[in-house]
Amino acid sequence: MKQLSVIILTYNSEKDIYACLESVYQHNDIGEGLEVIVVDNQSQDFATMQQTIAQRYPEVIITQNTHNGGYGQGNNVGIRIATAPVVAIMNPDIRLMQPIFAAALQTLDNKDVIMCAGKQMHSPTQLGWSYAFDYNALSFLQVPLRNIYKRFDYYDYRHMHLSGAFFFIQKACFEQIGMFDEQIFMYGEECDIHLRLRKAFPKKKIQFLSIPYLHLSAERPFEEKRYRQLLHADLYVCRKHGLSVAHYLRIRLFALRLCLLRCKLQGRGHSIEAQTYPPMIQITKEILHTL
User: Could you read off the pLDDT of 118-151 as tens digits, one per residue?
Assistant: First the structure.
């Protein structure tokens, strides 16, 4: 019987998926209890990828989605295939740095814990975003505090959601809340899932594990289309849960301006990171003014 089903959704991810799978099997500490499912959202390179995975990892279950319905819809396909009582959602740009599966399963053996995730790193020395404040808990004070919380591994499951790039969850509980909301094509899923879990299972906990893993997302170039998609997904989540869209956008504007100021004070005003903030600020202001 499988203990854990790892679901990896791909879309034109051939450059990432092989190294991701290699790290999964290199750090597999549950042996035959592991099930790996790759769901492809109609990639151009699917045939090549399918053949290569079958040759290198014949035990991997690989299936192609009937259409590209987005991040949540594709992962839901994998969840329905999964046979283990615990599922892990993993992006193809995740690389395990050390074993984590046994620790996650041991954590979820506690019936009071419904979900858990490890410590996200952008590089072996650069912290990623393992968690963030829920949209219903946002305040101006929390913007400068979030870096402190991240640095000291402070996580409060009542007000913070784990990163959606890699997490473990009890399958039955996830199914009970309807799994991923397929109205969200991409982004915003983690906050929506967290708010629904907290509402459906108010006495259950969500736990942060200080076990590091790599998320190779820090070098992604800024894309206006992707940022607008992120904002619209977040606003959908706000409206869905009865939260103030205007308040969310004002907090985001404050955070972006603070990040830009920090770059300038650190002498990085002309860095690639600093250059992404002005267009993000302009787009956020534009959407706020249309409300």
Answer: 999 999 999 999 999 999 887 887 777 888 888 8
pLDDT at 268: 84
The pLDDT value given to residue 137: 80
178 Rama sector, left if φ>0, alpha if ψ -120 to 50, beta otherwise: left
Predicted confidence at residue 138, as pLDDT, reads 77
Place of tokens 């640095």: 151
Helix axes 224-240, 272-289, angle to 10 degrees: 50
Q: Are 161 and 191 in contact (CB under 8 A)?
A: yes
- Per-residue pLDDT tens digits for 55-104: 999 999 999 999 999 999 999 999 999 999 999 999 999 999 999 999 99
Distances from the Cα of 153 to the Cα of 205, 209, 260, 261, 283, angstroms = 17, 9, 24, 24, 32
Q: Which residue has the tokens 């989540």?
A: 237
What is the C-alpha to C-alpha distance for residues 230 and 27, in angstroms, rounded to an integer? 32
d(CA 122, CA 124): 7
Under 8 Å between Cβ of 185 and 236: no
Q: Which two tokens stand for residue 204?
A: 């259950």
Crossing angle (nearest 10°) for helices 272-289 and 245-265: 160
Q: Which secondary-structure segment (H or E) carries 255?
A: helix 245-265
CA-based nearest residue to 212, from 276, 90, 280, 117: 117
Instruction: Of 133-137, 151-155, 219-223, give the lowest mean pLDDT range.
Output: 219-223
The first and second tokens of residue 274, run together, are 């600093």
Of the candidates 255, 246, 247, the one whose C-alpha atom is nearest the C-alpha of residue 277 is 255
AA letter at 88: A
Residues facing residue 20 across a β-bridge: none
What 3 state SS string does 183-236 have? CCCCCCHHHHHHHHHHHHCCCCEEEEEEEEEEECCCCCCCCHHHHHHHHHHHHH
